[in-house]
Amino acid sequence: MLEYDLTSHRHLLRFMIGEKVLIQKFVKKKKERLPKPDWLKIKLGDPRNQNAVLELIEGLNLHTVCQEARCPNIFECWTDKTATFMLGGDTCTRHCGFCAVNKGKPMDLDPLEPTHVAEAVKHLDLKHAVITSVNRDDLADGGSIHWAETITTVRALNPECKVEVLIPDFNGDEQALNNVLVARPDVLNHNTETIARLYRRVRPDAVYDQSMELLTRAGYYRDTQMPSMKTKSGIMAGLGETFEEVIDLMRDLRRASCDIMTIGQYLQPYEKRLPVERYVTPEEFAEWKAIGEAMGFKHVESSPLTRSSYHARQQTESGT
Question: Other C-beta atoms within 10 Å of 282: how many?
């Protein structure tokens, strides 16, 4: 009669089952991308104008969020010779699930960057400059002093230009926020990006309540020190939130005394980023706009192609 080692047999079965599970994980069908609706189609602008902006930015060793975040409005904005400058290099210390910006260890800050941004603003003859940055959690002050120097230098060289800043949360550091505020930006923007329920998946290194606290502090500074300054925040729709959850977030922003809100459609920048859960209709965006303005926002920019700096000057002017 054939004899065999039962223990070895069990090990073999476990190995075969384990291999099957492993194979299934690798051959698991990828989630198919949703087809883009017609309302997300864009018109390409004049490449000559876009190339002129690109040459200027590269010549001054600058980065723009237009390129790094793969903004769908880049053709329209660059045709108008406008751009959103990004401080601190092109590498971010955080790991947000939606973002196309490089992740890793950033390089040292460029001490000439504030001057180069100011020179670019002057060369493009901007009336409203938008400045943002990567997260620099590797720096003790989060890069806030560099921020302040940039605001001051841009305004010194371009006294008629409005300066809007889109800042990170600085890990809740109140002094870092104050470093930016005392430079007196015309608009202080900090995006919440999504609803509270989705923060762990969308912004794993951030805290929803911390962002709300930052906006509340900025609103208090506006009310007590700089009444002309406006506060602003924005989110992306289509990441799994419900219509009502966006309205709840609007209420939170109003409680934080936020003046301006932007709502746009999330677009997956490449395969390894979070997928689009749904494409929100233009009618829903219009409804959010009406609801937000009824709540008391000075302006709500809400449409499929809306981004933080899209129509930024018009947003500010309409909110006066």
Answer: 15
Radius of gyration of the chain from its Cα atoms, rounded to whole angstroms = 23
Cα 99 to Cα 273: distance, rounded to the nearest angstrom: 7
Six-digit token string for 264 = 């746009």
Tokens of 48: 């000559």
Cα–Cα distance for residue pair 205/23, rounded to 1 Å = 32
What's the number of CA atoms in the CB half-sphere (13 Å) around residue 300?
Answer: 22
Residue from 274, 284, 191 nearest 245 by CA: 284
- Residues 81-127 have pLDDT tens digits of 556 788 887 777 887 766 766 778 888 999 999 999 999 888 888 88
What's at 307, amino acid-wise? R
Q: Which residue has the tokens 């723009």?
A: 64
Encoded tokens for 110 = 């460029």
DSSP 169-196: -GGG-HHHHHHHHTT--SEEE---BS-G
Q: What is the pTM of this model?
A: 0.79
Spatial contact of 216 and 257, defined as CB atoms under 8 Å apart:
yes
Q: Sheet holding 128-133: strands in order across?
A: 63-64, 84-87, 128-133, 162-166, 187-189, 230-237, 260-265, 299-302
Of the CA atoms within 13 Å of residue 97, those in its CB half-sphere come to: 17
- Give Cβ neighbours of residue 95 (< 8 Å, ≥ 6 apart): 103, 204, 205
Q: Which two tokens stand for residue 93?
A: 């210390």
Dihedral sign, Cα of residue 49, residue 134, residue 297, residue 239:
positive
Which distant-in-sequence residues (6+ apart) come within 8 Å of 55 by Cβ? none
Task: For residues 53 and 153, give the distance between their C-alpha atoms in angstroms, rounded to a whole number.
Answer: 20
Give the total residue count for the chain: 320
Q: If you ran DSSP here, which 8-state letter would residue 193 be given? A: B
Q: How many CB atoms lie within 10 A of CB 104?
A: 8
Q: What is the DSSP letter of 99?
A: -
